[in-house]
Amino acid sequence: MSTQDITAAKFNETITDNEIVLVDFWAEWCGPCKAFAPTFTASSDKHPDVVHAKVDTEAEPGLAQAAEIQAIPTLMAFKKGHMVFRHSGMLPAKELDNVIAKIKEFDVEAAIAADAGSEQS
Q1: Dihedral angle over CA of 91, 95, 99, 105, nearest 10
Q2: What is the pLDDT of residues 27-40, one digit of tens each?
Q3: Which listed residue (3, 8, 27, 30) is catalytic?
């Protein structure tokens, strides 16, 4: 599966309608973003069960602001609609694979339940 560009109009739908979504916030003028793009694309081919989405921060400034993007590239990962990972800067392919493996193993429901339990204390 290749990467897909998403807009503010499709952002919430994309992260809630898919099990795992990686979102790469980038801009055309950003050298590190261009350097990370082949790694992100290769990851989408290697992990077809994970949605690899891209947000152009120049075309979607409101979405970038809502996501509190302060540096690019910024990678955010969502599982079952919940953000479970955020990283600013490039990631080597092996590290990106490790992140994806950890996200696949992560029990988001248990984490939400544990968090809800700690808020009641």
Answers
A1: 170
A2: 999 999 999 999 99
A3: 30
Is 12 one of the annotated active-site residues of the chain? no
By the 8 A CB rule, do 88 and 70 touch? yes
Question: What pLDDT sits at residue 1?
Answer: 59
Domain tally, the chain: 1
Domain span at residue 93? Answer: 4-120
pTM: 0.91
Q: Which of 20, 33, 99, 100 is catalytic?
A: 33
83 annotated active-site: no
CATH code for the domain in which residue 11 is found: 3.40.30.10
Per-chain mean pLDDT for the chain? 93
